[in-house]
Design goal:
By secondary structure, this protein is α+β, with helices and mostly antiparallel strands. Helix content is 22%, strand content 35%. It binds adenosine-5'-triphosphate and magnesium ion. Magnesium ion binds at residues 44-45. Adenosine-5'-triphosphate binds at residues 14, 20, 38, 40-46, 202.
Length: 368
């Protein structure tokens, strides 16, 4: 079976210098939602716009539903109108002079090819129900809230059942609470319709909720594409680890590596066992990434068990964050609950080996 979307060696260069998209490869099987996640300027929107046909790629090949829609080497470029895609953007692209229903019916009446049969009214009604706007059909679209307008935009892209739905930070103009609600609902809607989606965001929480797979991008390159659990527990790269929240870094030197296991010398405190996705060699400088919530305070485990010193506590509502000094380096440790379980001063500390991820230290500065 062919992928709904296949991207091979995609390159987009706007001007001399680094390409905005730099040799990106991935596919989206039918019915799957792939999220591109990365910091501002990493090339997410440019990738999406290349798929949409709004940007002309410099190199590589894009296929939608098994049909090549862009291949600059062969001078091949299919126009956006002929790609059978739907698009939802950050800004609510709705027709202000129309009602909700007219907005959603518009593409059915004006698109050259609308899939399937059935009458316009039925399709519009079903789609409005799907996005939770069943009661708003006759309202002028300008009388709606931001979240409701974004549902109209979504309904308008879903109503003609495109092969592929492209979404570029569709929730980022909404307030925090609404963003979370619509995020959860969006997943339900996309899954219910069996839609294939490519979704772009810089918000990790959104990526995790929505993505069957997440692709982490940096400076035009796709660093890792994997299911959320794998991105979170087996980051292939120190940037992926850091960007998805492994904010602790311990610096050391590789003593030994066997397959995916590495032993790292941390200096005065001793050595730690870690997992590594990289072919580290003895003597390499290493950085070990750790999530604050994976560190066990007040516990002596079978491996990677040390003593640290609590130097500060911060209550953050549902959780407590401890700053722990550990062999001249600093660790942030997070525990659920606001009870102060640990006092300032000496504390037992366990860093479970599976949650310590070692990467080659290329002297990069911390990334926030
Ligand atoms: N039309 C353009 N002309 C020149 N450079 C561009 C153009 N569009 C994007 N770029 C550059 O390409 C790079 C990638 O931009 P892009 O918009 O794809 O980033 P992004 O990952 O979507 O970021 P954000 O999270 O801020 O939306 C940036 O360095 C940007 O300045
Ligand atoms: Mg963008």
């Amino acid at each position: 079976m062919s992928s709904a979307l296949l991207i091979e060696d995609l390159v987009k260069r706007f001007a001399a210098g680094k390409p905005a998209v730099d040799g990106v490869n991935f596919d989206v099987p039918a019915g799957e939602i792939v999220v591109l996640l990365g910091p501002s300027g990493c090339g997410k929107t440019t990738t999406l716009r290349c798929v949409a046909g709004l940007e002309h790629p410099t190199g590589g090949r894009i296929s939608i539903g098994g049909r090549v829609v862009s291949e600059p080497e062969r001078n091949l470029l299919v126009s956006p109108r002929e790609r059978d895609i739907g698009m939802v953007f950050q800004s609510y692209a709705v027709w202000p002079h129309m009602t909700v229903k007219q907005n959603v019916a518009y593409p059915l009446k004006h698109r050259r090819s609308s899939n399937g049969s059935g009458n316009v009214d039925t399709k519009v009604r079903e789609t409005l129900e799907l996005v939770g706007l069943g009661d708003y059909a006759e309202r002028p679209v300008t009388s709606l809230s931001g979240g409701q307008m974004q549902r109209v935009a979504l309904a308008r892209s879903l109503v003609y059942r495109p092969q592929l739905l492209l979404l570029d930070e569709p929730l980022s103009n909404l307030d925090a609470k609404l963003r979370i609600r619509l995020r959860d609902e969006l997943r339900r809607i996309l899954k219910q319709t069996g839609m294939t989606g490519l979704y772009v965001t810089h918000d990790q929480a959104e990526a995790v909720v929505l993505g069957d797979r997440i692709g982490v991008m940096r400076e035009g390159k796709l660093l890792q594409m994997a299911p959320p659990g794998e991105i979170y527990n087996r980051p292939a790269d120190s940037f992926v680890a850091n960007f998805t929240g492994a904010s602790n870094v311990l610096l050391g030197k590789v003593l030994e590596r066997k397959g995916e296991r590495a032993t790292i010398d941390l200096g005065q405190v001793g050595r730690i066992e870690a997992w590594t996705p990289q072919p580290l060699a003895a003597g390499d400088r290493a950085r070990v990434a750790l999530r604050a919530e994976n560190i066990r305070l007040g516990e002596r485990g079978p491996a990677n068990s040390f003593t640290g010193r609590v130097v500060e506590r911060r209550y953050q509502g549902m959780q407590t964050v401890y700053d722990v000094e550990f062999g001249g380096q600093k660790l942030e440790v997070l525990e659920l609950g606001t009870a102060a379980r640990h006092q300032d001063g000496e504390v037992a500390l366990t860093l479970p080996p599976d949650t310590c991820w070692a990467y080659r230290d290329e002297g990069q500065s911390a990334i926030d």
